[in-house]
Design a protein that fits this description.
Keywords: Cytoplasm, DNA replication, DNA-directed DNA polymerase, Exonuclease, Hydrolase, Nuclease, Nucleotidyltransferase, Transferase
Number of strands: 34
EC number: 2.7.7.7
InterPro entries: DNA_pol3_alpha_NTPase_dom, DNA_pol3_finger, DnaE2/DnaE/PolC, DNAPol_HHH, NA-bd_OB-fold, PHP_dom, Pol/His_phosphatase_N, Pol/histidinol_Pase-like
CATH topology of one domain: TIM Barrel
Shape: globular
Protein name: DNA polymerase III PolC-type
Structural class: alpha+beta
Largest sheet: 6 strands, mixed
Pfam families: DNA_pol3_alpha, DNA_pol3_finger, HHH_6, PHP
Distance between the termini: 38 Å
């Protein structure tokens, strides 16, 4: 029996696709385009196609269409059935669903469409946009196309949608705002911080409280959000707002979005602003800026508005009428003499404590404490932040001492399974050094357990060796003393235990409540817990040890316990909800806690003794306060000699003033601040790589340094564009800003000797690298070939010694995704329905809590030969992986990057591709010109590739070119039409910046306000532009620095720039920027990419071989080796999937699509791809044949690198006589054999070594 299948359409133009090849006139094509395929029924080789249409097609067209489909798909019969649809009655009952589909998750668009009127006229839907705001929103979001698509899907026929602006206004809630009348008082009487009053026309102006953020103030009794279950027309809430953002449409209107949460739930909030009536756009802009500034990152507020249910997002939204700041009382320590906390954990206690070090120190300082200790579990990674916080407070006149310590894990022997908690407090610099040694030893030599649940343990004997300068405390209930008391050990044994410690510790009894609920322990009542502390007190008195009361802080306030509960719940703690009260207590709270010891003794253990311990500890910094660079003997002399020698070789014995001035400008601060050694180190690393045949690309701003260029650290020349003669050293500089890059100068011959002149120079100021005064520690980042990176890392050990180089350590804290999951699952497990804003609010209490450690991708920290690393940081293995031979800094590298030299020796694909191209083409990459017209042409056309844009599916030939291969940069190229090297550098800068292109330079260029050459693309552009327009160099530098960091330009500086003639559009562009890329980095990237583009044009097969070899993991030989049609079909499948997911694919599929598009291009250019050959293919690299490529084994999906190498090695001993022989000799597992079989590599090969004679 033949089965019938029903296929639903996945593409809007499916009918025309089915009819490809059918000759149609314009009328017929329009008629077919207006049809929508509802479904296709398939029965064997018979198709029945059901189409929806509003206009009847004649039988002749139907017959021709059916015949064409039958021919295209080799079918015996095709039937096409028309369903005539009357659009108006069909749309009416489905309009809400159509709008829902069209909005596709955009709540603002959904509400605006639902408010819009529509009318059906034949097959046209006329949509009336509610006012200018709605019209702009519809235009920007492509609402017409969205509605057309939704109608096709829901109704089953095609239509055309036309958006028209309605004459009505005020359709959006809260869109109207009228600024207050200006009071007739002198300007000096105004209150700058007061919010503008939102008043009706002709109303009297009323001065509002400075606390008002939006509206006229909030009045009424607040309700809890958690008890509101329906829409409310007027409600007052108290809580916190966070995540503020203002989205501006092209019309100038704003949508202010906020999230709000109180103690019970959360809700999304909105407020609309647009210029109406007498309100100007400038006033609206200023109002939104003021509101965002007033909100900041968020804070406590009272908020008033109406709650409406949003059917589209299935949740409630609060439309804001008014909002004002709310003061929240903080806990204070009011005792005359304050206590000191000697046992406190921060977020660096992995997945256990939630207090940021900064907040802990600031709270202790606000309470007036003289000191506070940091004692994280097994680590000291909070020290830098605590130090920086204390120093910042000192600048404000607030003094607090940080006691640097740790809660360790004490064991009696190296293999002792039982570890007890123990407190270490560094008394002085010697103690700090010994503490760091203990941290290193515990992590490197004595770490036991899994990476996640393991502990860095300290053997008692090792502690004794390094105890000098360390104050040792008995710790919490997990310490050996209290565990001994709980276990009922004899007094003599307890005294022996207690004698080991410098102080004995007790804690609030409810910290140990779990002892009452665990059958393993004899405690049953609170009095039993008090008896434990009384016993510790007894031992302290008898042995003359200080008794110290601590909180064992894991969260700051009692209500913060929920954050620790969320983390512990997510990590398998079944009793996570039953949190002990491990919060930071005030002096009064602690005295009340220990009153059962008697008032005098309670005061001693809470106040007197902790303060005495604090007084015993000295003040010192946990990390040095200055840079300790490795010594390179003769570095100062060497850098000067190398710089001048190279400069004279290029520019002549009598250096041009511009060259000598630049060398002097740079060398003076380099020598003065001791940076010469850093330059020489980088030079030696680069020279070693170059000598071994691998180019090195510079990163960051090092290309801003002409000295770096002269000694060979970077190939980017930062001088102004210029000519120079390689024969007689004639030179000529163009320093008027008319040329962006020397590569773009017209070619000329030397007027002295006739030799073709070399063109160079990219006009990059030195200040971008080392600061205006040249005192910023150089950050020299280098891109080595990924293949060569391990060699470069090893070479640092040769240069400095193995025990003087360590990988730069990193600390990974909980981020948004994990923290959100923790919070969401916590409330789900409790059966509590919480809105997304509430979950996002609660997750913030978990974010940043340390999860694990790691290492920088290529960062190397160098310790001077005459110093021990423990003067700077402990060391450990990354992620506590005891199988790793790598040692990293214990501190996050950022915290010590200005104390130790950090070398960024990064692995990158581009130098590897360049090396492969050199081997394949036998052309030195340094001889590739940067002004080749054919190469430049592929950035705007496909002519140099010999193919058409229609065939390729792109207007340019930049597939596979670094910096220019993404759809984002290709769209940028389309918009900007680059025609020279400097333009390419600008595009690279645009693509790496934030708020630099989209909504900024792109709009300016499209509007004709700016050209590609004038728009801001890199940080250097600002300094150069301002200086060329007469602005003071220091002010130009400071403006550049503020803009590149997203700080904008201060009002007083704006006035200075305006006075200097800087246009308004330029200033506004600066104000939008959040991050700017350095031009030196962009130039280095583009130079590498240009070389690869040159090879793509002039050495095509070598280019494809190199590119695919680097990306063999994404290359699917099963598809690409089957030919051009198979590649096209695979591309179309992925593009169709992308359309279904709003243009998005997952990363793996996106990478596959990029490779397929490049393979399609290769086929179009007349080249092909062969199947993998068992005896000829390489393990990992593509092999060039005359007009084709032979893929490696790793190009077959599922074939691993080891298996591929094993096959290549095994075949050296001769051909394989069978599949069994292959598997045995190459030690290849069954899955790899099946991969080879599927690809066809085993065709014709016997399965077994046994020959059956009589089979």
């Amino acid at each position: 029996m033949t089965k019938t299948y029903r296929i639903l359409p996945c593409a809007a133009d499916l009918l025309l696709r089915l009819l490809h090849g059918l000759a149609l006139d314009d009328e017929e094509r329009a008629l077919l385009r207006a049809c929508a395929v509802r479904h296709v029924e398939v029965r064997g080789d018979t198709w029945e196609i059901v189409v929806g249409t509003q206009m009847i097609m004649d039988d002749a067209l139907i017959d021709r269409a059916a015949a064409q489909v039958a021919e295209n798909y080799q079918l015996s019969q095709v039937l096409i059935q028309q369903n005539i649809v009357a659009l108006a009655p069909a749309v009416a009952p489905l309009w809400e669903s159509i709008v829902r589909d069209a909005a596709a998750g955009d709540a603002v668009l959904y509400h605006t469409l639902m408010q819009a009127d529509y009318a059906v006229d034949g097959n046209v839907i006329r949509l009336s946009a509610p006012g200018t705001f709605g019209a702009e929103l519809f235009a920007q979001s492509g609402a017409a196309g969205r509605i057309e698509s939704a109608v096709r899907t829901r109704v089953g026929c095609a239509c055309r949608v036309v958006c028209e602006e309605s004459a009505l206004s005020g359709a959006l809630p809260g869109a109207d705002w009228t600024p207050p009348a200006v009071p007739a008082v002198p300007a000096k009487a105004a209150t700058p911080s007061a919010a503008p009053a939102h008043t009706a026309k002709n109303a009297k102006t009323k001065r509002l409280s400075p606390e008002v953020i939006i509206g006229r103030g909030v009045s009424g009794e607040a309700r809890e959000l958690g008890v509101i279950e329906d829409e409310v027309k007027n409600v007052v809430l108290e809580g916190e707002v966070f995540d503020p953002q203002a989205n501006q449409l092209k019309s100038g209107a704003y949508i202010l979005l906020l999230k709000f949460a109180d103690a019970t739930n959360g809700i999304s909030c909105k407020k609309f602003f647009s210029a109406r009536g007498k309100t100007t756009q400038e006033e609206i802009d200023a109002e939104v800026v003021r509101i965002l500034k007033a909100i900041g990152k968020g804070g406590a507020v009272r908020i008033q508005g109406k709650i409406e249910y949003d059917k589209f997002i299935s949740d409630y939204v609060l439309f804001i009428d008014s909002m004002e700041k709310r003061s929240v009382p903080q806990r204070e320590d009011t005792s005359k003499e304050k206590r000191v906390e000697l046992h406190a954990h921060t977020k660096m206690s992995a997945l256990d404590a939630v207090v940021p070090p900064k907040v802990l120190v600031e709270t202790a300082a606000r309470w007036g404490w003289p000191a506070v200790a940091i004692t994280d579990h097994g680590v000291v990674q909070a020290f830098p932040e605590a130090m920086n916080t204390a120093r910042a407070l000192a600048k404000k006149g607030i003094d607090i001492k940080i006691i640097y310590g740790m809660e360790g894990y004490l064991v009696d022997g190296e293999d002792d399974a039982r570890a007890f908690h123990i407190i270490f407090l560094a008394k002085n610099k010697t103690g700090l050094y010994n503490l760091y040694k203990l941290v290193s030893l515990s992590h490197i030599r004595y770490f036991r357990g899994t990476k996640k649940r393991g502990r860095p343990r300290v053997p008692r004997a090792v502690l004794q060796q390094h105890r000098e300068g360390i104050i040792v405390g008995s710790a919490c209930e997990a310490g050996e003393l209290i565990r001994g008391i709980v276990a009922g050990r004899p007094n003599a044994e307890l005294e022996e235990m207690a004698q080991f410690y410098d102080f004995l510790e007790i804690q609030p009894i409810h910290n140990n409540d779990f002892l009452k609920f665990d059958d393993r322990f004899p405690m049953q009542t609170d009095e039993d817990l008090r008896d434990i502390n009384r016993k510790v007190d007894e031992l302290a008195r008898k042995l003359g040890k200080p008794l110290i009361a601590t909180c064992d802080v894991h969260f700051l306030n009692p209500e913060d316990a929920v954050y620790r509960a969320m983390i512990q719940k997510a990590n398998g703690y079944r009793d996570a909800e039953r949190q002990p009260p491990l919060y930071l207590r005030t002096t009064e709270e602690m005295l009340a806690e220990f009153d059962y010891l008697g008032a005098e003794r309670a005061y001693e253990c809470v106040v007197t003794n902790p303060r005495r311990i604090a007084e015993e500890t000295e003040r010192f910094l946990p990390i040095p306060d200055e840079l300790y660079a490795p010594m390179v003997p003769g570095a100062d002399r060497e850098i000067q000699e190398m710089s001048y020698a190279r400069a004279r070789k290029l520019y002549g014995e009598n250096l041009p003033k511009i060259v000598s001035d630049r060398l002097e400008l740079e060398l003076k601060p380099i020598l003065r601040h001791g940076f010469a050694a850093l330059y020489i180190i980088a030079q030696r690393l680069v020279k070693k790589s170059n000598d071994d045949g691998y180019l090195v690309g510079s990163r960051g701003s090092v290309g801003s340094s002409f000295v770096a260029t002269m000694i060979g650290v970077t190939e980017v020349n930062p001088l102004p564009p210029h000519y120079r003669c390689p024969h007689c050293q004639y030179n000529r500089f163009i320093d008027d800003g008319s040329v962006g890059s020397g590569f773009d100068l017209p070619s000329e011959d030397c007027p002295v000797c006739g030799t073709p002149l070399i063109k160079d120079g990219h006009n990059i100021p030195f200040a971008v690298f080392l600061g205006f005064d040249g005192d910023k520690v150089p950050d020299i980042d280098l891109n080595f070939s990924g293949d060569y990176q391990p060699v470069a890392h090893k070479y640092t050990e040769v240069l400095f010694g193995k025990m003087n180089v360590f990988r730069a350590g990193t600390i990974a804290g909980l981020q948004d995704k994990n923290a959100y999951g923790y919070a969401m699952h916590y409330y789900e497990d409790q059966g509590a329905a919480k809105g997304r804003p509430y979950i996002e609010h609660m997750m913030r209490g978990c974010m940043g809590v340390k999860a694990t450690t790691g290492q920088h991708a290529g960062g190397i920290m160098v310790v001077p030969r005459d110093m021990d690393v423990h003067y700077f940081t402990p060391i450990q293995r990354p992620a506590n992986n005891m199988e790793s031979d790598t040692l990293t800094t214990h501190f996050d590298y950022h915290s010590i990057s200005e104390r130790l030299v950090k070398l960024d020796i990064l692995g990158h694909d581009d130098p590897t591709v360049i090396k492969m191209l050199e081997e394949l083409t036998h052309r030195d990459p340094e001889t590739i010109p940067f002004d080749d017209p054919a190469t430049m042409s592929i950035f705007t056309s496909t002519d140099a590739l010999g193919i058409t844009p229609e065939d390729l599916g792109a207007n340019m030939g930049t597939y596979g070119i670094p910096e220019f291969r993404t759809s984002f940069t290709q769209k940028m190229i389309d918009d900007s039409n680059p025609d020279c090297f400097a333009d390419l550098v600008r595009i690279s800068g645009f693509s790496h910046g934030t708020n630099v292109w989209l909504g900024n330079a792109q709009d300016l260029i499209k509007a004709g306000t700016s050209t590609l050459k004038d728009a801001i693309s890199a940080r250097d552009d600002i300094m150069n532009y301002l200086m060329q327009n007469g602005i003071d160099p220091l002010l130009s530098f400071k403006t550049m620095e503020n803009v590149r960091k997203g700080r904008g330009i201060a009002p007083d500086v704006v006035e200075k720039l305006r006075a200097g003639g800087i246009p308004e559009w330029y200033i506004e562009s600066c104000q939008k920027i959040k991050y700017l890329f350095p031009r030196a980095h962009a130039t280095a990237y583009v130079m590498m990419g240009y070389r690869i583009a040159f090879c793509k044009v002039h050495y095509p097969l070598a280019y494809y071989a190199a590119y695919f070899s680097i990306r063999a993991a994404e290359f699917d030989a099963n598809i690409i080796s089957k030919g051009k049609d198979a590649v096209r079909a695979a591309i179309d499948t992925l593009l169709a999937e992308a359309r279904e997911h709003r243009g998005k694919l997952d990363n793996k599929k996106q990478d596959t699509l990029i490779v397929l598009q490049l393979a399609w291009e290769m086929y179009l250019r007349g080249f092909s791809c062969e199947p993998v050959d068992l005896y000829a293919s390489d393990a990992e690299k593509f092999i060039l044949h005359e007009t084709s490529l032979l893929p490696p084994f790793t190009a077959i999906p599922g074939m691993g690198q080891k298996a591929a190498q094993a096959i290549v090695e095994a075949r050296r001993d001769g051909r394989f006589i069978s599949v069994e022989d292959l598997a045995t000799r190459a030690h290849v597992a069954a899955p790899a054999i099946e991969v080879l079989r599927t690809h066809g590599c085993l065709d014709g090969m016997m399965e077994s070594n046994q020959v059956e004679l009589f089979a």
